[in-house]
């Protein structure tokens, strides 16, 4: 997909702030610092539309990125950031739950995991939560550039087995090296 006019639309913390209308939404979930913002920038071929940071836990609201008035990438707050206070974690968790329970335009959830590591307990909880939503989802194993290309398929399979995935798509991805983009777009377009 060629993206011509992507734009940041709004950061929201409640339903009344969500964009109006019926554009499909592709929702990004994952732990802090897994690369959700980098994923957005890579997919739309922009450097800084979604702000990235080396410090985990910077995204504290739900960020809506309008992609050519065709759909939204929706970046949810990351989970699992240990320096976030308990109160902040509860508030972020509420934003995520409210959005996923009430988001009428959600077409697909994209769970981003770090290909280099076994899914954490928080990853497993999020995966189980996604299953309970009954919404379509895929799993992307980001940071595939950080391991040897000969190990990518092995690590994807390991994550698949750890999560017990037998019926959903799981794909490698690299925001840094911009590889696997076509495969991911092909998958996303099935839901738009």
Brief summary:
By secondary structure, the protein is α/β, with parallel strands linked by helices. It is built from five helices and seven strands. α3 links the parallel β5 and β6.
Task: Note down, in words, how this protein is organized.
This protein has 192 residues and is an alpha/beta fold. It has a single domain (6-189), classed as P-loop containing nucleotide triphosphate hydrolases (Rossmann fold). It is 31% helix and 22% strand. It has 5 helices and 7 strands, in the order E-E-H-E-E-H-E-H-E-H-E-H. Strands 1-3-4-2-5-6-7 form a 7-stranded mixed beta sheet, sandwiched between helices. The model is unreliable at 54-58 (pLDDT under 50).
- What class, by secondary structure content? alpha/beta
Order of strands, widest sheet:
1-3-4-2-5-6-7
E-strand count: 7
Task: Provide the CATH top-level class.
Answer: Alpha Beta
First and last CA, distance: 12 Å
Radius of gyration: 15 Å
CATH overall fold name = Rossmann fold
CATH architecture: 3-Layer(aba) Sandwich
CATH H-level superfamily: P-loop containing nucleotide triphosphate hydrolases
Unreliable stretches covering 5 or more consecutive residues: 54-58
Morphology call: globular
Helix content: 25-40%
- Give the amount of beta strand, in percent: 15-25%
- So how many helices? 5
Topology:
Layout: E1 6-12, E2 25-30, H1 36-43, E3 62-67, E4 71-75, H2 86-102, E5 106-114, H3 121-133, E6 137-142, H4 152-163, E7 169-172, H5 181-189
Parallel strand pairs: 2-4, 2-5, 5-6, 6-7
Antiparallel strand pairs: 1-3, 3-4
């Amino acid at each position: 997909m060629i993206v011509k006019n992507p734009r940041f639309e709004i950061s929201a913390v409640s339903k009344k702030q969500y964009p109006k209308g019926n554009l499909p939404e592709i929702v990004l979930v994952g732990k802090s610092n897994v690369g959700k913002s980098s994923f957005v920038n890579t997919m739309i071929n922009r450097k800084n539309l979604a702000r990235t940071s080396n410090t985990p836990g910077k995204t504290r609201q739900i960020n809506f990125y309008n992609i050519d008035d065709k759909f939204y990438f929706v970046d949810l707050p990351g989970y699992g950031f240990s320096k976030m206070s308990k109160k902040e974690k509860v508030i972020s968790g509420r934003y995520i739950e409210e959005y996923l329970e009430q988001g009428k335009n959600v077409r697909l959830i994209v769970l981003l995991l770090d290909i280099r590591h076994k899914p954490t307990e928080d990853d497993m909880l999020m995966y189980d939560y996604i299953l309970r939503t009954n919404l379509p989802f895929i799993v992307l194993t980001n940071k595939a550039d950080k391991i040897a290309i000969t190990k990518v398929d092995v690590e994807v399979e390991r994550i698949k087995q750890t999560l017990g995935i037998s019926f959903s798509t799981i794909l490698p991805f690299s925001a840094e090296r911009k590889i696997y983009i076509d495969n991911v777009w092909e998958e996303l377009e099935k839901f738009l």
